[in-house]
Each structure stands twice: as C-alpha cells, then as structure tokens.
Amino acid sequence: MFKYRLYPSAKQELRLVNQFKICKETYNTLLDLNKKLRVTRKFDLNGLVMDLKCANPLLAKKVHSQVLQNVSDRLSKAFDNFFERLKLREQGVKVKAGFPRFKSKVTSLTFPQNNGAFKFISDKKLKISKVGVLPIVLHRVPRGKIKTLTVKREKSGKWFAVFSCEVEPEQSVPLGERSSVGLDLGLETFAYLSDGEFVSNPRFFRKGEVKIRRAQRRLSRKKKGSRNRSKQRVRLARTHERIGNQRSDFVHKTSNDLVSRYETIFVEDLKVKNMIKNKRLSKSIGDVSWRGFVDSLSYKAVMSGGQVIKVSPKNTSKTCSKCGFVKEELSLQDRQFVCGGCGFVVHRDLNAAINVFRVGMGGAEFTPVGHSVRPLFSGAVVDEAGTIYNET
Ligand SMILES: [Zn+2]
C-alpha cells in the first residue's frame, strides 16, 4: 500500500463527497433488496448494480461504473465474512454472527486500474474519472504494478490516495545494477548512462530555434493590421507547433525506451543542477528540455512499476567515479575527466553518470535528495575497466 496526500479543489471535493453519498445509498439499497431477493453472491450483486443503473441513469453519470461495482464487491465481502462466522459458530466457536448492517456513511471510493479510471498526467497530477485532475504529492514512488486506487477522506478532513500494488516476485528480489542506471543530462550529449550508453542531443532543437527567430523577425517587419502580418503570424504559430511536436516526440521516445529497460533510474536534481551551472547555459538547458524529460520519465516509471530517484548533483562532475578523489577545478572545455588521485581517465559525462548512480545507490560521501527512497544496495563499485559491480 502506498499512501499520498491529495489536494482536491473545492469543486472536486464536492464531487467526491457526492459520490460517497451515492455509494452509501447504493450499498444500503443493495442490502435492503437482499431482504426480498436473497442475493449475496458477488456476481448477482453486480447484476443488481446494473439494474439500479438502468433504473437511474444519473447514477452512471455521476460515479464511475467500476466504483459502483466496488460497492457491490464490498457488500458481497461483508456477506462472505458473515457466512464464515456462521460456519465458525456451527463448529462451536463463540463469535457474533453479525449480519451486514446499513452504512451510515462512506468515506472512500475504490477505482481499479484496468480501464483508465485514473492515470498520472505527470508525477504531480493524478487524473480521476468523474472527479478531475488532482494535485498529488508523491513523496516516494509506488513499487510494483498499481492494482487499485482508493480515494479517501480521513477524519482530519485530509484527502489521500492509496494505491494497492502487486509486486512481482522477481521485483522483491534486490535489484542488480542491470535494472538500475544513473543518468547525466548534458549539453553536448543529451544524456549519458552510467553503463556507458548515451543519447545524442537532438540538434533539430537548435535549428528549430533559428527558424522561430527568423519567423519572428519577419513578423515584426510586416505592417500592423496588414493581411501579410496575419499570414506571418499563422506561419510563426505553425513553426512553434512543429518544433513543440518534435520536442515532445523526442522526449517520449527517449523516456519510453529508458523506462522499458531500467527499473530504477537515478537522475540529478535539476533544481540544484541549474543553480550550479553557468547562467549563460540556461538557453541550452531549455533547449534540450531536461525538465520535461525528467517529468515524463518520472510518471512513466511510476506507471510501469519502476522509479526515478533524484539525487544531489553536487560534485558529480568533479569527483572521480573510481576512487572518490574530488578535483578542485573542472572547466566545461574538459571533455575528459583525468583523475589527479588514481589517474583514471574517463569521458566527463560518463564519469558524472557513474557518480549519479553511486549517489543513488547510497554512495558514502553523498546523501540522496528529492524522493526519499531507500537505496537498493550500497557499495556499488567501479573496477579498472569502468564496469560497475556490487561489492556485497
Ligand atoms: Zn581517481
């Protein structure tokens, strides 16, 4: 179970409370019908819900069908427990039979995953059918495949999203380095992976920028209110759109690929990284859309049962990934990292990526920031050849 704070707006809160009410009424109606119809089995109760929906189409409009189904599931569970207790009594065990009772209130809704009743729009936004897009705080990432979402209001008035996840047996085995990777997001190369792979920088971003600037200049030269000006405005908008599409296409392809191959991905915390980097570079940083990429990576990882862990980028470039020696100075022109301690020579970005990996894995001299997920194992070590292995 993974529990997170939800922050519904006043309007969304109203919708949720209204759905609580409908669920309560449905539950009680089903229980009441039981007196005449004697239905207690899950299948039959689900059928009754269908009948109720036919009789009252508004029901289906206001509450997701699977949520109503869950109401009848809850009732059939209550009946199952009741019958279980009856059996125990027959065996001489002293328990109260406890026939299911009418509910005075319902304070939670349960959504199954399998039919798009809810989904992550980003790692900060959760879209719930018939409720809307709700801000969510993912202080840690759900592990395993998400089975159901329960939205509930606690007595304090605080709202929570509770995910029940199915953790595959092989996922509960400590992860080896093959399924985890460190990422260094760079300017020259878009991303360097700690296992030596890299993703080239899409140069068309730069070209696109030139095109936009040219279109903008042309627009400013056209006379105000002229037909040529409005034509040029359309052209500019189209250029923006095309480049936006290329950008998002690249971001999606790259994040899909990484999420499909790695379960745990360590990235630098960009908030800190941008503060460290030179201001002059800010244009290029926007250019390669790091932030959009990390967001996309994060929610895709969440949806597929993986995780993205942000680590502090402090000294990731300056530290030798082999011996831990920290360089005083490293200029942006230095493409190679040459260690003053052990003489290790490695591509600068690969060195940083390995350090990101080490920090994420709980490297001694660094503390992970951002998502406070416990490192999977500590003591990742890089050997002479630059291969990473687990010390334990
Ligand atoms: Zn060294």
Description:
There is one protein chain. With 392 residues, this protein is of the alpha+beta class. The chain contains eleven helices and 16 strands. A five-stranded mixed beta sheet has the order 10-9-8-11-12. Strands 1-7-6-2 form a four-stranded antiparallel beta sheet. β6 (145-153) and β7 (159-166) form a beta hairpin. α1 crosses α4 (65-90), α2 packs antiparallel against α4 and α7 crosses α10. It is flat, with a radius of gyration of 28 Å. Residues 169-178 and 364-392 have low confidence and may be disordered. Zinc ion binds at residues 320, 322-323, 325, 339, 341-342, 344.
H and E string: EHHHHEEEEEEHEEEHHEHHHEEEHEE
Beta-strand percentage range: 15-25%
The average pLDDT is 79
Strand order of the largest sheet: 10-9-8-11-12
Report the span from N to C terminus: 29 Å
Radius of gyration: 28 Å
Which ligands, by name, code or SMILES, are bound?
Answer: zinc ion
What is the SS-derived class?
alpha+beta
